[in-house]
């Protein structure tokens, strides 16, 4: 059954991004609410706002590394002259007054003081509430000389260990059937109760646990069957070869069939063996930040409930149809899995001031993972989950109607997108490897204070912010190269 609109669950990624912005307090984010505005124009305004913010920060010296709980880490230098201890005790009293937690304190003889006065230079690294930073610095200035703070850029907290994903479950309620009057299930209390019940599985889930199975009702299976059967007929002529291969395996090993909605636990085990990806249940539309943060660990946050029976070909929010038919088969391909993870490269080091850059990541995600096309054997095929889970847009994307451009991250990142109708523009990649390398080159061109590296042995993300850490990574790389060199020697 063709769709009259492409506003399917596959629109969720950009909604995630937009919802993030809506929660933000910046002027830029409010402007971005009108999604069809020129991104380039917004970029100009963003730069102006960032410059003004930087100027203000310079003036007040509120330069901190913000933590999730509203605390800030502050590095502060100051000088106390003379040998009397009163200045020291008064200064330390300031830290006590603001209930700051001192992480590090060291001193050295001061060589800058005039008139041969003795004194000490102090360095204090402390944790203080974000709202107290400015006042604390002012108070220290009243007691000490030459007060300086180091320049640090504000970054959001992000998960470093895979278990940290238990904290990455912030939902966006905009498309919740309890709140959104346009949701097909808004007037159906039975559906809403069912959705809540399945959602509770996700709320109670912790990393490492087995995902609780859902016994789907006959009505839910009928909905699945209608979408599954309709799309399956189209895949052989429209889906890329990697998708077709994975779909065949999923039907053979994971219970993919018109009469059965696959269980997330089974699919997760299948993906782990194929590409190392894991699924974890999520109760609804996840915030964009949490969603991308999960991909860095090769974890895909996956809804478990299904769309309303009255609207089998349309859902305003993500559901298991979109995840299982759109995303999962592609995550079973090694190259695409690598691309999905690389996609988060650079994301972590996007500072709070770089909100528009953050949006560019999601726009690129939109035009690749959700709506990407690729070339195969002289034909154009679909690999985007938004296409492969939407009959209407899948047909539209490979028709003569839309404009199809070569994938170029610089262009795609600022291309206005459409979330209420079919995309007027798609981007076609030569291959996933080609798209991955182009994306890497794009990220490499973005000025960032640090990079991150995923360690598969510890399932953790390491911040590469000093040469020693990079050297450690190179040691591991050398070991892997030796293994491969040995393998070549054995074969030759
Ligand atoms: Fe999606």
TrEMBL record:
Gene3D superfamilies: 3.30.70.260, Aromatic amino acid hydroxylase. The keyword Mitochondrion does not apply. One of its GO terms (molecular function) is iron ion binding. Pathway: Catecholamine biosynthesis; dopamine biosynthesis; dopamine from L-tyrosine: step 1/2. Its EC number is 1.14.16.2. Residues 143-492 form the Biopterin-dependent aromatic amino acid hydroxylase family profile domain. This is Tyrosine 3-monooxygenase. Residues 1-12 have a biased composition (Low complexity). Plays an important role in the physiology of adrenergic neurons. It is found in: Cell projection, Axon; Cytoplasm, Perinuclear region. Keywords: Catecholamine biosynthesis, Cell projection, Coiled coil, Cytoplasm, Iron, Metal-binding, Monooxygenase, Neurotransmitter biosynthesis, Oxidoreductase, Phosphoprotein. Residues 40-69 form a coiled coil. GO terms for cellular component: axon; perikaryon; perinuclear region of cytoplasm. It comes from Gouania willdenowi (Blunt-snouted clingfish). One of its GO terms (biological process) is dopamine biosynthetic process from tyrosine. Belongs to the biopterin-dependent aromatic amino acid hydroxylase family.
């Amino acid at each position: 059954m063709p769709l009259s609109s492409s506003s399917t669950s596959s629109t969720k990624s950009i909604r995630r991004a937009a919802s993030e912005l809506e929660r933000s307090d910046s002027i830029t984010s409010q402007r971005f609410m009108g999604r069809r505005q020129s991104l380039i124009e917004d970029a100009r305004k963003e730069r102006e706002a960032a410059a003004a913010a930087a100027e203000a920060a310079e003036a007040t010296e509120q330069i901190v590394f913000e933590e999730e709980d509203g605390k800030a880490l502050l590095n502060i230098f100051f000088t106390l002259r003379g040998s009397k201890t009163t200045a020291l005790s008064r200064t330390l009293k300031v830290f006590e007054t603001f209930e700051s937690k001192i992480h590090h304190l060291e001193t050295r003889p001061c060589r800058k003081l005039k008139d041969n006065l003795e004194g000490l230079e102090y360095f204090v690294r402390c944790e203080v509430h974000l709202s107290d930073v400015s006042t604390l610095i002012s108070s220290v200035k009243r007691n000490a000389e030459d007060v300086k703070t180091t320049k640090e850029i504000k970054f959001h907290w992000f998960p470093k260990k895979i278990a940290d994903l238990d904290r990455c479950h912030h939902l966006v309620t905009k498309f919740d059937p309890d709140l959104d009057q346009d949701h097909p299930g808004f007037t159906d209390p039975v559906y809403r109760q069912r959705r809540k019940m399945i959602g509770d599985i996700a709320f109670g889930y912790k990393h490492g646990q087995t995902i609780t199975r859902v016994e789907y009702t006959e009505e839910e299976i009928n909905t699945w069957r209608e979408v599954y059967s309709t799309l399956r007929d189209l895949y052989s002529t429209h889906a890329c070869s990697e998708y077709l291969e994975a779909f065949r395996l999923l039907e053979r090993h994971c219970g993919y069939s018109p009469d059965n909605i696959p269980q997330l636990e089974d699919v997760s085990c299948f993906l782990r063996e194929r590409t190392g990806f894991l699924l974890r249940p999520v109760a609804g539309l996840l915030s964009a930040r949490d969603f991308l943060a999960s991909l860095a660990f090769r974890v895909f946050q996956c809804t478990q409930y299904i769309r309303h029976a009255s609207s089998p070909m349309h859902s305003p929010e993500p559901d298991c149809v979109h995840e299982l038919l759109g995303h999962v088969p592609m995550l079973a391909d090694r190259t695409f899995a690598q691309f999905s993870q690389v996609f988060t490269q650079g994301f972590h080091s996007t500072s709070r001031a770089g909100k528009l850059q953050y949006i560019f990541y999601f726009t690129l995600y939109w035009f690749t993972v959700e709506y990407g096309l690729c070339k195969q054997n002289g034909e154009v095929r679909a690999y985007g989950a938004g296409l492969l889970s939407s009959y209407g847009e899948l047909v539209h994307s490979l028709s003569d109607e839309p404009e199809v451009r070569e994938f170029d991250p610089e262009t795609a990142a600022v291309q206005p997108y459409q979330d209420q109708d079919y995309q007027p523009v798609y981007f076609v990649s030569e291959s996933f490897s080609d798209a991955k390398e182009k994306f890497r080159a794009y990220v490499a061109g973005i000025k960032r204070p640090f990079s991150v590296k995923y360690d598969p042995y510890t399932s953790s993300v390491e911040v590469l912010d000093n040469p020693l850490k990079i050297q450690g990574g190179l040691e591991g790389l050398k070991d892997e190269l030796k293994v491969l060199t040995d393998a070549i020697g054995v074969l030759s």
